[in-house]
Amino acid sequence: MNIGEAAKTSGVNAKLIRHYESIGIIPKANRSDAGYRVYSDADVNILSFVKRARGLGFSMKEIKKLVGLWRNKSRSSSDVKNLALTHVKDMEQKISELQSMVKTLNHLAKFCHGDNRPDCPIIDSLAKEKA
Amino acid sequence: MNIGEAAKTSGVNAKLIRHYESIGIIPKANRSDAGYRVYSDADVNILSFVKRARGLGFSMKEIKKLVGLWRNKSRSSSDVKNLALTHVKDMEQKISELQSMVKTLNHLAKFCHGDNRPDCPIIDSLAKEKA
DNA sequence: CTTACGCCTTCCAATAGTTGGAAGGTCAAG
DNA sequence: CTTGACCTTCCAACTATTGGAAGGCGTAAG
Fold it and tell me: Is residue B48 located within the same domain as residue B88?
C-alpha cells in the first residue's frame, strides 16, 4: 500500500511517517518503480506500535529503543521494564512539579479580586517574592 | 551594570537575556559607547519577574502578556486572574494525562517478569492492543 | 490525446525555549 | 603590549510535529 493508506490504517500522519523514516525510528520503506514508498501490514504494525508508545508519553529516543527491543526476539523483558519504569519516574516527577505550580497559582488567585482594580496578588508575587 | 552582572543578579542566563530581548519579551536594553548592554535595577526586576513566571510554568507568550500587565498601572486584576486560571486549567489537564499514562504503564509493568525471558506484556500491549 | 485532480516525492522553514559554539570587539590589570 | 575576562552578533542544535512550495506520477473524463 502507499503512504497515504498506511497513514490512514496506522493513524500516523504521512508526513510524520516520512519523518520517522528519516530519523531512523522505522526502517526505510521499499519503493515502487515510480519511487513511491510501499508498505506491508508488518510495516503498519510498527507504525501503530510507535503511535501507541507516543500515546504513553515515551520520547522518540525511548521509542527507538522499544522498537529495537520489539523486533529483537532474544530481548530480555527486564530491558523493557527498566525503560518503562524509568519513564514512569520521569512522569511522576513532572506531575509533582505541575501540582506544585497549580497549588501556588491557585493560592495566589484566591486572593486576587478579579475586578477592575489594579491590585493583584499574582502580579505582586511575581514582581517581589521568591516564587 | 553589564549583562553578566544582570544575569547573576536576576538568575537569568546572559544568553537567555539577549534572546528574551530579541523576541520582545523584555524592552531593548540601553547601550554603552562600546555597544555593551547596560541594565538598571528596574531592568533586573523585569528579568526576575520573567524567571519566576517561567518557574510557574507560564509560556513565553503568556509571560509577554504578564509583563505588559505588570508594567501597565491601569490594568485590571481580572485580566491577570483569567490568565492565571486558564494556565491552571492547562496544567491540570496535563497532570491528568500524565497520571493516566503512569497508571497504564504501572499496570503493564506489574505483569512483566523483568527477567531474561523475552515475554513482556508492555511490548505485547504496544504491539497489539489499543493503548 | 490531453487535461484535471489527487496522490506522491524532496527540501526548507516554522513552532517553543534554550543552549552551544565561532569569530570578533572591548576593558582592565600586569 | 599582551593576557584574559567580558561583551558583541550570527548560526546551529535540541524534540516532535506541522506546513508549504515545486515538481513527478496515475487514473478518469472530455
Answer: no
Q: Do residues B66 and B80 both lie within one domain?
A: no
Give the pLDDT confidence score for residue A129 in this predicted structure: 56
Mean pLDDT (chain B, rounded) = 90
Q: Cβ contact (<8 Å) for B95 and A92? A: no
Show the cell assigned to A14.
504521512
- Tally of domains in chain A: 2
State the Cα–Cα distance between residues B31 and A127, nearest whole angstrom. 25
* Grid cell in block for residue A72: 529483537
Domain boundary residue, one of B38, B56, B75: B75
Report the alpha-carbon distance of residue B107 to residue B125 in Å, rounded.
11
- Distance CA B110 to C1' D30 in A: 65
Query: Which residue in B50, B92, B126 sits closest to A49, CA to CA?
Result: B126
For the segment A26-43, what is each residue's pLDDT rounded down to a tens digit?
Answer: 999 999 999 999 999 999
Cα gap A12→A25, rounded to integer Å: 13
Dihedral pair phi/psi, residue B38, rounded to 5°: -120, 130
* Cβ-Cβ contacts under 8 Å, B67 against chain A: none
Task: Select from B51, B75, B99 the last residue of a domain.
Answer: B75
Task: Tell me which amino acid residue B94 is.
Answer: K
- Residue ranges in chain B whose pLDDT is less than 70: 129-131
Query: How far is the C-alpha of A57 from the C-alpha of A63, rounded, in Å?
Result: 10
Of B125, B100, B129, nearest to A80 by C-alpha is B125
Query: Nearest nucleotide, C1' to the C-alpha of A19?
Result: D17
Q: Which domain holds residue B103?
A: 76-131
Residues A36-73 have pLDDT tens digits of 999 999 999 999 999 999 998 999 999 999 999 888 87
